[in-house]
């Protein structure tokens, strides 16, 4: 990786680590000393026992004992690649972020695709939204666009996230997936209806990672060079076309080829068949926010494209496979809190909760110095007053450890200050439960009636009926009530397919 090479070059120049005048070609311990024999441990006689003094054995075994880091609490199974982003349209009237400054400008990117609910060894083709996260290595720091492949989210308040995820994971007693937990939570929180319809449509079983769109879902704020802002949603559409698996095929692949999507991506890139996506923004001014009939900061809602048209920004191309999965994909840390000058958070409650959750879990999953891992390193030097902690690798030498100081000549960037203009907020501090106070069904109804054709409706009903049938009778009735609020037609089709209610 280029960042790794740069880091090593810098350290070598600074005299921090010795440079090797010649490469060796023998096997070593972790501390670099040549191993005497690799295929046997040190024993007293032919039949053992082993000796404590076999430091080569202990070096090998003790490292092995610590090979696993915690898997991601969500999005544990995934694959990824590297590539570049190329600006194709000028959006500087909305956003002053350096990566958008010029048509034709290229920025290195890393992408990680994932399923959400399953463990790290689970099958790629299980019904689920997919994660689709992009890290842009810009000249003003790393910007992470952490999206999913369906355009809406199942809740609009982040405090419900841990509970909702628990219903997608395993039952505490049986360690089995449990349809009652899932349908209990879904029917008690009707704001989940919109996402549930997407996930049980064909969009819930995409054909690998290359044939899906990506959506930032959470609403952000873009600031332009004169300090004016708009609110924004990000969408990146596949140039390969949307493709999905039938339910039967997806279920078959769960058994026969659980790594189907990871393999497909790797092979496509290896054969020079580089997948690409076109990045768009939708924008809303403060006036449009004030006049909107729905809350633009509600992650269960789409911004209708007839009123908020897609504005092209550029093209994302993946042309480089990882050379070391653990170092480049497992250890990559994506977070919506990683923004660059010109991109800011909006009041979106889900986003505000996410700003805390990702770096928090990454400090736990990878350790507090996870930003020093090469794949997470920015292109430019880091200058701050954070020091030490486990595994600190680039500890900024002898530069001052406090601010303000009279020693270094660093100051904040005027550009970053100008692109962070003050804004006002007001309101009564309160726990506002929006489960039933906002419209939960108009957009799901539009999805069912207008966005799906009849063939897609048939698949949706089929997929939903199978899943609801696995729940107990009272929950089946609640699910029918829920979908009856979307459409009487959907309810009656489901009713005829669910036998035990
Ligand atoms: C309250 C809402 C949410 C919370 C608390 C939350 C929390 C998390 C956490 C803790 C991780 C693991 C990160 C890691 O270990 O590195 C994660 C991963 C992820 N989340 Fe969320 N999430 C939320 C909503 C969303 C939404 C709305 C999206 C899509 C727009 C999303 C997309 C992703 C993706 C793509 C990943 C995987 C990133 C990767 O590939 O490393 N999440 N989320
Ligand atoms: C980047 O986009 C510009 C503008 O559309 C185009 O002229 C150029 O060929 C593109 N470059 C690459 C490497 O895709
Ligand atoms: C920033 O946006 C405002 C409001 O739309 C506009 O008047 C101004 O010209 C924009 N600035 C730049 C540098 O594009
Ligand atoms: C740092 O920048 C701020 C704002 O541009 C300025 O007011 C301040 O004097 C600068 N401080 C130093 C030590 O240069
Ligand atoms: C939906 O409509 C039914 C009436 O058929 C009602 O009883 C129910 O509470 C509504 N809401 C939900 C979330 O199911
Ligand atoms: C919505 C959609 O594109 N559905 C397609 C999913 O894949 C099956 C099998 O290829 C098609 O028949 C559907 O049209």
TrEMBL record:
<feature type="binding site" description="axial binding residue">
    <location>
        <position position="358"/>
    </location>
    <ligand>
        <name>heme</name>
    </ligand>
</feature>
<dbReference type="InterPro" id="IPR002226">
    <property type="entry name" value="Catalase_haem_BS"/>
</dbReference>
<dbReference type="Pfam" id="PF00199">
    <property type="entry name" value="Catalase"/>
</dbReference>
<feature type="active site">
    <location>
        <position position="148"/>
    </location>
</feature>
<dbReference type="GO" id="GO:0004096">
    <property type="term" value="F:catalase activity"/>
</dbReference>
<protein>
    <recommendedName>
        <fullName>Catalase</fullName>
        <ecNumber>1.11.1.6</ecNumber>
    </recommendedName>
</protein>
<dbReference type="InterPro" id="IPR018028">
    <property type="entry name" value="Catalase"/>
</dbReference>
<feature type="active site">
    <location>
        <position position="75"/>
    </location>
</feature>
<dbReference type="InterPro" id="IPR024708">
    <property type="entry name" value="Catalase_AS"/>
</dbReference>
<keyword id="KW-0560">Oxidoreductase</keyword>
<dbReference type="InterPro" id="IPR011614">
    <property type="entry name" value="Catalase_core"/>
</dbReference>
<keyword id="KW-0349">Heme</keyword>
<dbReference type="GO" id="GO:0005777">
    <property type="term" value="C:peroxisome"/>
</dbReference>
<keyword id="KW-0479">Metal-binding</keyword>
<feature type="region of interest" description="Disordered">
    <location>
        <begin position="386"/>
        <end position="407"/>
    </location>
</feature>
<dbReference type="GO" id="GO:0042542">
    <property type="term" value="P:response to hydrogen peroxide"/>
</dbReference>
<dbReference type="Pfam" id="PF06628">
    <property type="entry name" value="Catalase-rel"/>
</dbReference>
<dbReference type="GO" id="GO:0005739">
    <property type="term" value="C:mitochondrion"/>
</dbReference>
<keyword id="KW-0376">Hydrogen peroxide</keyword>
<keyword id="KW-0732">Signal</keyword>
<dbReference type="GO" id="GO:0020037">
    <property type="term" value="F:heme binding"/>
</dbReference>
<dbReference type="InterPro" id="IPR020835">
    <property type="entry name" value="Catalase_sf"/>
</dbReference>
<dbReference type="GO" id="GO:0042744">
    <property type="term" value="P:hydrogen peroxide catabolic process"/>
</dbReference>
<comment type="function">
    <text>Catalyzes the degradation of hydrogen peroxide (H(2)O(2)) generated by peroxisomal oxidases to water and oxygen, thereby protecting cells from the toxic effects of hydrogen peroxide.</text>
</comment>
<feature type="domain" description="Catalase core">
    <location>
        <begin position="28"/>
        <end position="411"/>
    </location>
</feature>
<keyword id="KW-0408">Iron</keyword>
<dbReference type="GO" id="GO:0046872">
    <property type="term" value="F:metal ion binding"/>
</dbReference>
<dbReference type="InterPro" id="IPR024711">
    <property type="entry name" value="Catalase_clade1/3"/>
</dbReference>
<dbReference type="InterPro" id="IPR010582">
    <property type="entry name" value="Catalase_immune_responsive"/>
</dbReference>
<comment type="similarity">
    <text>Belongs to the catalase family.</text>
</comment>
<feature type="signal peptide">
    <location>
        <begin position="1"/>
        <end position="21"/>
    </location>
</feature>
<keyword id="KW-0575">Peroxidase</keyword>
């Amino acid at each position: 990786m280029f960042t790794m090479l740069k880091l090593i070059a810098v350290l070598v120049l600074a005299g921090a680590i010795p440079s090797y005048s010649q490469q060796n070609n023998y096997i070593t311990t972790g501390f670099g000393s040549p191993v005497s024999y690799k295929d046997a441990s040190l024993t007293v006689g032919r039949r053992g026992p082993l000796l404590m003094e076999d430091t080569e054995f202990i070096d090998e075994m003790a490292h092995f004992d610590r090979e696993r880091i915690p898997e991601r609490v969500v999005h544990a199974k995934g694959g990824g690649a590297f590539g570049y982003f190329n600006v194709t349209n000028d959006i500087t009237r909305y956003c002053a972020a350096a990566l958008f400054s010029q048509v034709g400008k290229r920025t290195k990117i890393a992408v990680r695709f994932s399923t959400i609910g399953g463990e790290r060894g689970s099958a790629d083709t299980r019904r689920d939204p997919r994660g689709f996260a992009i890290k842009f290595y810009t000249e003003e720091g790393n910007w992470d666009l952490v999206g999913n492949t369906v355009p809406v989210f199942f809740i609009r308040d982040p405090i419900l996230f841990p509970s909702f995820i628990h219903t997608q994971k395993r039952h505490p007693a049986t360690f089995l997936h449990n349809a009652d937990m899932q349908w209990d939570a879904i029917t008690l929180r009707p704001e989940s209806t919109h996402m549930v319809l997407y996930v049980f449509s064909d969009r819930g079983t995409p054909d690998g990672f290359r044939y899906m769109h990506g959506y930032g879902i959470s609403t952000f704020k873009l600031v332009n060079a004169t300090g004016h802002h708009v609110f924004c949603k990000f969408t990146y559409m596949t140039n390969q076309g949307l493709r999905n698996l039938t339910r039967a095929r997806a279920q078959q692949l769960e058994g026969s080829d659980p790594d189907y999507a990871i393999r497909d991506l790797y092979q496509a890139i290896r054969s020079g068949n580089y997948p690409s996506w076109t990045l768009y923004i939708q924008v809303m001014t403060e006036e449009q926010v004030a006049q909107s009939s729905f809350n633009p900061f509600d992650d269960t809602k789409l911004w209708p494209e007839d009123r908020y048209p897609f504005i092209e920004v550029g093209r994302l191309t993946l042309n480089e496979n990882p050379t070391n999965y653990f170092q480049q994909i497992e250890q990559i840390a994506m977070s919506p809190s990683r923004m660059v000058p010109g991109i800011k958070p909006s009041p979106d409650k889900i986003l505000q909760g996410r700003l805390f959750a990702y770096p928090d879990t990454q400090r736990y999953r990878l350790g507090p110095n996870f930003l020093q891992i090469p794949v997470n390193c920015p292109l430019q030097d880091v200058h701050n007053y954070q020091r030490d902690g486990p595994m600190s690798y680039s500890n900024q030498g002898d530069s001052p450890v406090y601010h303000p100081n009279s020693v270094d000549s660093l100051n904040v960037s005027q550009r970053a200050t100008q692109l962070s203009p003050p804004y006002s907020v007001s309101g009564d501090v309160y726990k506002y439960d929006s489960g039933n106070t906002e419209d939960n069904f108009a957009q799901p109804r539009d999805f069912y009636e207008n966005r799906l054709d009849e063939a897609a409706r048939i698949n949706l009903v089929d997929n939903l009926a199978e899943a609801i049938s696995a729940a107990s009778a009272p929950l089946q009735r609640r699910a029918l009530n829920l979908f009856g609020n979307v459409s009487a037609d959907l309810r009656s089709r489901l009713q005829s397919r669910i036998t035990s209610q």
